[in-house]
Specification:
heterodimer, A: 111 residues, alpha/beta, Transcription Regulator spoIIAA, 5 helices, B: 136 residues, alpha+beta, Heat Shock Protein 90, 5-stranded antiparallel beta sheet, 34% helix
Chain lengths: 111, 136
């Protein structure tokens, strides 16, 4: 897995590429914790290049979102599609996260 | 195949099962589901099967013509992962926990899942039927 970050005017866009699984999930959590500690509060996570996700991946997405929520931050997911979306849907996570069809749309939704 | 039940071996077991699923001709969507179910079962063994030290996981792939079969075994204490309760998938973000989601995926992403205890092993058998999507 690779993680790239891009600072936009009102949010940090985090692009994850490859697999978010039991091996790579801790890397995502560590990176997000660093960004949150660095005072970033609004995030868009771009799933366009993510090929695979398991419950370990969902666990860190959830823990990061909870941490942000207690700090008054926001997180939105963009481009959750195909087989990755299926995992979101059967877990019920599709309904608890804010989802948008593109990063551009997600950016307009950041309050 | 068999290997040490450690998280670092996830790539190894994934590669083994993906190659077998490709030889069988499992379609992409079904194969993805099989690999997620595999991860959940394998990580469960890594996390819980051997509380007192190291142990192995054993994997076998096969087919009955119509379906891709995957068996994942460990030599830990008798434990049926399928006996775990279903998670509540309707809670909101702050109340939601991820516990139980792994077995939920094992159930939902396979066409059938069964457990047996045999020769001192816990054996989880998962069946993935050849998808008929797109077939007229």
């Amino acid at each position: 897995m690779e993680i790239q970050t891009q600072k936009e005017a009102n949010a940090t866009v985090v692009t994850i590429t490859g697999r978010l699984d039991a091996v790579t999930a801790p890397e995502y959590e560590k990176k997000m914790n660093e960004l949150i500690a660095g005072e970033a509060a609004c995030f868009i996570v771009d799933f366009d290049k993510l090929d695979y996700i398991s419950s370990a991946g969902l666990r860190v997405l959830l823990s990061t979102a909870k941490r942000l929520k207690t700090k008054g931050g926001q997180i939105r997911f963009a481009n959750v599609r195909g087989t990755v979306k299926e995992v979101f849907d059967i877990s019920g996570f599709g309904a608890i996260f804010q989802m948008n069809d593109s990063v551009a749309i997600a950016l307009t939704k950041i309050a | 195949m068999h290997c040490a039940a450690t998280v670092e071996n996830l790539a190894l077991v994934t590669e083994f099962v993906e190659a077998a699923a490709d030889r069988f001709g499992l379609d992409t969507k079904k194969k993805f589901g099989a690999l997620v179910a595999l991860e959940e079962a394998f990580i469960n063994i890594c996390s819980y099967a051997y509380p007192n030290g190291e142990g192995e996981a054993e994997l076998a792939c096969g087919d009955d013509g119509d379906a891709f079969l995957l068996e994942i075994a460990d030599k830990g204490a008798p434990f049926d992962v399928l006996s775990l309760p279903e998670p509540d998938t309707s809670l909101d973000i702050m109340d939601r926990e991820v516990g139980g989601l792994g077995v939920h995926f094992i159930r939902k992403l396979s066409d059938s899942a069964s457990y047996r205890r045999e020769n001192g092993q816990n054996i989880l058998r998962l069946v993935f039927r050849r998808s008929l999507e797109g077939v007229q």
